[in-house]
Amino acid sequence: MDAAQLKALALVCTLTPSPKPSSSELLARQIVQQLSTHDVECDLIRVVDHDVKPGVQTDMGEGDEWPAIRQRLLAADILVLATPIWLGHPASVAQRVLERLDAELSETDEKGRLSMFDKVAVVAVVGNEDGAHHVKAELYQALCDVGFTIPAQGATYWVGEAMQGTDFQDLPETPEPIAGATAMAARNAAHLARALKSSPYPAG
């Protein structure tokens, strides 16, 4: 494979199963579309459609669909983690993903480095109340702990006015500031992932 070729996996943590529309998935797909303009091959999974068992191991046994998702993540250079805000926090599905990623603290490559080293993560957040910065901070901290690298301005988000019911997917078009943030997050993620692919983190 060309050293410049990158792969991305978007994990959409909406609480809404397919085929119902999802604002979180819409924003994730906008990041994916931007990544594709930087020669990144992209895949997307709506996590709630899969039986991801609770736990902090790479495989929680019979029926657990996380191991298959994990293999796709291991093959990717970029993770896009998309979540709605509920009660001021990331959705429970996002928390489930982070808990499963906790297992990576015990997983190392042939050089003894954490399995998620040299991978880049960006975040997408949607909600109808303020709290996007808080949610970003929660996700950033967890992703960094398990080995991901966050690019400069590696997030995009939309939050509507408080005490109203408009969803991101209800907007007639994406506001320019959000579109610009999405493009920048994708651009910086592709740049950083390509740099790490060419020059990985050193072994201890």
TrEMBL record:
Query: Which InterPro entries does this UniProt record tie to the protein?
Result: Flavoprotein-like_sf (IPR029039), FMN_Rdtase-like_dom (IPR005025)
A Pfam family found in this protein is: FMN_red
In this chain the NADPH-dependent FMN reductase-like domain maps to: 18-159
The entry's protein name is: Flavodoxin
According to its UniProt entry, this protein's organism is: Arthrobacter mangrovi
